[in-house]
Structure formats: structure tokens, C-alpha cells
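Quick one: sequence plus LBFN2T5F SMILES, need C-alpha cells.
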Amino acid sequence: MTDFRGDTAAPTASPTQQSSRLPFTKGHGTGNDFVLTLDPEGEAPTDAAFVAALCDRHRGIGADGYIRAVRSSALPEGRALLQTDPAAEWFMDYRNGDGSVSEMCGNGVRVFAHFLLTRSAAELPEGGELAIGTRGGVKRVTRSGDGYAVDMGPWEFIVPDAAVARGMDSLVAIGGLDVDRPALSISMGNPHTVVALAEQTELDRTELHRAPAVRPLPPEGTNVELVVPADPLVGEDGVGRLTMRVHERGVGETQSCGTGACAAAAATRFWAGEGAPAQWLVTVPGGVVGVTFFDGPEGREHVQLSGPAVLVAEGILLPGA
Ligand SMILES: N[C@@H](CCC[C@H](N)C(=O)O)C(=O)O
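Reply:
Sure thing.
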């Protein structure tokens, strides 16, 4: 006989800590979706249970991440940035769907900029830039086509010696694939581990509902990108192309990851060696983002990420919902 006791169990997730009505906006960048709130004084709740309940797709609003738009002057991390970059009036306080904090979110920062502009909390004149504080430093956003482009700053190897000597620093066990794969870990402010697969059929049969096991795991954990480089890698237009799926730290498989696309392009470009292009298009389940490498003002190589930002709804989260 079937035991239905499990069906009557009390819901485990509820945004309980929140005692007043919280206005929110829902948005996404290539299907990577976020709940945003305008919170100038940094008063909206941030505890992990609240964020996880808010981002729950069945009992909450549902999202990959939660973003508070806080004045930099209202947060210690923001005040530190203002000392060297007074233009960064707003700080993107980003949390993953499980409530953990992340240093940076590439899709999130475009949606954040669009949110601030739509709410008239910031201005971005044609040809100008908007400076946004993040835990990964100040990011500069400009308009680009129908969306936005962001100077994501320099990329870095997480284990430089191994990367340069062997082109890999770890092994990754991935659901659906028999053999562990070599991988290269890259920081975009937040950690990424990139695995190249030989063909699309391999990428399709990969199971990403469980986190791939990375050995050794970078100290802060990691986001895992599986990439299939196009064949030929570079089109007649001189642009490199990749297809990518991602398992995000603190979330699970998502439709897209902006910092992940930057890391995937950086790893593939490194593997391709001399003559690899500066411009890349990365196809993710939720769309396509552009990645361009350029010389930054301080003489290091920077990454620019471009793509759309869409706001889809506004609402009010009820107390104790
Ligand atoms: N989806 C984001 C990255 C969000 C943070 C990530 N899960 C982490 O924990 O580092 C992006 O678009 O970059």
C-alpha cells in the first residue's frame, strides 16, 4: 500500500524572516534569472534561509539569484570601493539561490544596470558608462546593441603554475560521462572550472542535476563549465565560437552564466594558443553572449561581456509568505 505521509509534510521553505512587504522586480539575462530589490539603505533581509525560500521555484518567487541594489555608502564593502572609485554609487549585493554570497555575477550586473536605469536610480547617457560596485571590484557598464557590455576586469588562473605547465589543474567527474576529464580553473572574481568536451552529443548526455566533483576543489568551491569548441573554432568572421552548459555553485544547472562564459572563452583561447581570436560568441541554453579580450588600462588583459538584460515583472512579497 502506498504511504502518502510524505505528501502531507509541512513545507520546508518559507521566507519567514521578512516582516514587511518587500517590493521586488524579476529579471533575467539569457535565462539566468534574478529577484532584485531597490534597497538604498541596505535594510532588506539577506539571511540564507530567506534567500533560499525567495528563490524556491515552487514556494517562492523562483530565481537563480537574489540581488539587492544598495548604495555603496551603506555597506562596508561598498565604502571600501568608494575610497578609490567614488563613481560607484550603487553596489550589487549578489546572493546565489541557496543563500550563499558570490563575488560577482556577469548576467546579474547587466540586469542590475537595466533595473537601476528603469527605476531612474542611475543615468547612463549614450556613450557613457555606469560604475557598479561588486565584491569582485567596480565594473563599468555601457550600452551595447539591445543590451549592455560590461568590463569584467582581468581574468586569472586559479593555479597558475599548473595551468602554464599542463593546461589543466584538476580532474572532474561528470554525471553521464564514464571517464574523469581534465579541467582548467579560472577566476573572474568568482571561481570557475572549465572542461572541454569533444562533441555536442557528449554535452547533451551530461547530467548536471548533481554538481560535478572537482579534484582538487578550489578553496572557495567552483562553478563548472562544460564547453564544446566549434569546428572550425574560428569562423570566417574571425570570431571564436563555443557551446556551453554550466553547473553554478550555490544554484545547480542554469540557463546561462556570464562569468562562466568569460572563463570558458579564456580557457579555450589559452588552449588554442598563439593567434586565437580576441572575440568570442558563447552559446548557452538560454541564448548567446559575447566575450571580448582587450588590454586594460593597467596593462593586464581584461574581459568584456555583452548580452541582453530583461525585466519581466514587478511585485510585492507578502510578510511571512
Ligand atoms: N550566474 C552568474 C554567476 C553567479 C554566481 C555563481 N553561482 C558563483 O557562486 O560564483 C553569472 O552570470 O556570472
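The CA atoms of residues 94 and 255 lie 18 Å apart. DSSP finds six helices and 19 strands in the chain.
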